[in-house]
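Hey, I was hoping to borrow your eyes for a little while. I've been staring at a protein lately and its backbone has me curious. You're getting the sequence in one-letter code plus the fold written as tokens. Would you mind checking whether the tokens look sensible for this chain? Here's the protein in full, and shout if anything looks odd to you:
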Amino acid sequence: MANDGVDMGRRRFLTATTAVVGGAGIAMAAIPFIKSWQPSARAKTAGAPVEADISKLELGQMVMFEWRGQPIWIIRRTQAQLDVLSSLDPQLKDPKSEVTEQQPAFAKNEYRSEKPELFVVVGICTHLGCAPKLHAELKPEPFDPDWKGGFFCPCHKSRFDMAGRVYDGVPAPTNLVVPPYYFIDDNHIMIGEMKGAA
């Protein structure tokens, strides 16, 4: 008989062990292949939305995040900063945010934001791409003795109010850009995506 002396239990054990080891090897080989289907870290940073934690953002403070290689500023505005915005309209190029490409539809208002106290903006001057500086206090400044708070671009002296609206008579042609965003909850903002977008 051909099966004389063959240990069937041992044969089943070796067959099962070989199958398990082979299966594990195939799974390990498949991981890099499957990972190659996912976008690279560079591709993710190029356009992926960014979640911003604003839980520690105090009144009058600004935090910065990066989205698509651009600085995104989030400022928690004070009531005093909000109260002066409407008084600045006569001094601004586009007080009603008529250039629609500069903000999502929900931000086409006096505050240029979904929630008045929280301002989300791309921190790049619309003139030649310099980075304006935040001068949030309502106090005289060397560039404006009647300063009501906002942004001043040191490169070519463009000025923007606390809603990122550009002053008349400065080189910047349009308001600062408000990116697409939505509030996940009271402490988190998703930058780079509108609510309900896939």
Remarks:
- The longest strand covers residues 70-76.
